[in-house]
UniProtKB/TrEMBL annotation:
GO terms for molecular function: phosphatase activity. The lineage of its organism: Bacteria, Bacillati, Actinomycetota, Actinomycetes, Micrococcales. GO terms for cellular component: cytoplasm. InterPro entries: His_Pase_superF_clade-1, His_PPase_superfam, PGM_Phosphatase. It comes from Ornithinicoccus hortensis. This is Broad specificity phosphatase PhoE.
Amino acid sequence: MGDNRAMTTTGSTRTVVHLLRHGEVHNPGGVLYGRLPGFRLSDLGRQMAERVAEHLTGRDIVHLVSSPLQRAQETAAPSAEALGLEPEVDERVIEAANHFEGMTFGQGEGKLSNPRHWPYLRNPLEPSWGEPYKEISVRMLAAVDTARRAARGHEALIVSHQLPIWTLRRTIEGKRLWHDPRNRECALASLTTLTYEGDDPVSLSYSEPAVDLVARARPGAGA
């Protein structure tokens, strides 16, 4: 039968997958950085990553995956050390692609009122300015499935970004994928946790191990 701690009363294997959003990013210019290289964690962001590592110490996490972006890998590093794991990079959990990447909104060329941006605003339900929600959902489901299989009977940790994690959550909950970004429950350094019985998700929970630090974060330092 194997390890009884990994078995439910019905005999199916229980596996847990945690999705961790990275910590605060050093972004004094307020750039929509998206997938741009070179955006590291701020000092506060590193504190968030350390706090999460403390929170996860002692968990039965046997598999650790990170987005290839610097802010995600820096967030994963303290947990990797605490858990004694080598993070694997998975391109499927990267930030969503966005036409407005590299812009700062509110002035000049970055203003949404600029006519050159209008074609990208035609359909907020897709959304037309970036990677379609459906595509994000498909790649995130595949990445979680891979991590779940790798950690079968134990726990896995995936370090990703707000929109991919939120899109996955809405998929798991059977909700429409288009949404108001202001209503996302996915704060910096938060954990969205999926529990599986065999291959089926049976519960979803959310926690903020660094909630006191998040209250000190600068506007525009997320994503």
